[in-house]
Amino acid sequence: MTSYCIQHALMINEGVRINGSLLIRGGRIERIFREGEPFPMPDDAMIIDAAGKILMPGVIDDQVHFREPGLTHKGDIYTESRAAVAGGVTSFMDMPNTVPQAVNHTLLEEKYARAEKVSAANYSFYLGATNNNLGEILRTDPATVCGIKIFMGASTGNMLVDNRAALEGIFSRSSLLIAVHCEDDATIRSNAALFREKYGEDVPVEFHPAIRSTEACFISSSLAVELAKNMTPACISFICPPVKNCNYLTIKDRGPAKKLRPRSAFIISFSVIRIIQDWET
């Protein structure tokens, strides 16, 4: 069993910076040694001198679009996983809105088979929800699939889930993490119609955030919160556009509640109510 010893690195993890070495055995970190601490070196260890370098945990990117299958002129699992690793991302979760869309297990398994052959990083793939694929969702194994992706705003193909009964079925019966793209489609269509009246079909791109507006996000995310109150999954994530006022959101699981301000898109995890990504306090 080959071992690796990364020596003399500046290691940064969980807010702590230490100088030292790290021993990897059997593909897992076995021990971290501070500089000067006795270090029993395995006979078979491959030594990597990291003096002057920073060693950090690999990043897990929970929303990527690697465009395979069907859109590989933009990128594919081979190229994008290598770009990810080059930037310190060692695990990714890929979205289902490809061509064809990964909304059943046959198509999902094809993505897994492709990644097994060509991915340079750890991988998982979301199963996409539709208004009529609850059966596929319920037979999804949470040990092998990272989650279910629901587009509650306009998406490609048939991945817009706008049927209340379908949403209730997914939220109440699925045991997987649910990732929700929250934009109210009716509000978006109404806003788009107003701008087309003024500018015709070629609406200037700077009005995109006014069409997919704060109100569209709030209406959709409020519905998702309502559905989540009685849900089975351990975790739900919301992905929305930036909003002007998020004072209704607080962290409640660690110490005093803190008001939060979004920096770009936001993701909210409802294991209690825990903000997990892309915020500044």
Tell me the layout of helices and strands.
Elements: E1 3-13, E2 16-25, E3 28-34, E4 45-49, E5 54-55, E6 59-64, H1 77-86, E7 89-94, H2 105-118, E8 122-125, E9 127-128, H3 134-138, E10 148-151, H4 164-173, E11 178-181, H5 185-199, H6 208-211, H7 214-228, E12 236-240, E13 261-269, E14 274-280
Parallel strand pairs: 1-4, 1-5, 6-7, 7-8, 9-10, 10-11, 11-12
Antiparallel strand pairs: 1-2, 2-3, 12-13, 13-14
What does this structure look like?
- This protein has about 280 residues and is α/β, with parallel strands linked by helices.
- About 25% of the residues lie in helices and about 30% in strands.
- The protein contains 7 helices and 14 strands.
- It has helices spanning about 75-85, 105-120, 135-140, 165-175, 185-200, 210, 215-230, and strands at about 5-15, 15-25, 30-35, 45-50, 55, 60-65, 90-95, 120-125, 125-130, 150, 180, 235-240, 260-270, 275-280.
- It has a 6-stranded mixed beta sheet, covered by helices on one side. Strands 1, 2, 3, 4 and 5 form a 5-stranded mixed beta sheet that branches.
- Strand 9 (about 125-130), helix 3 (about 135-140) and strand 10 (about 150) form a beta-alpha-beta unit.
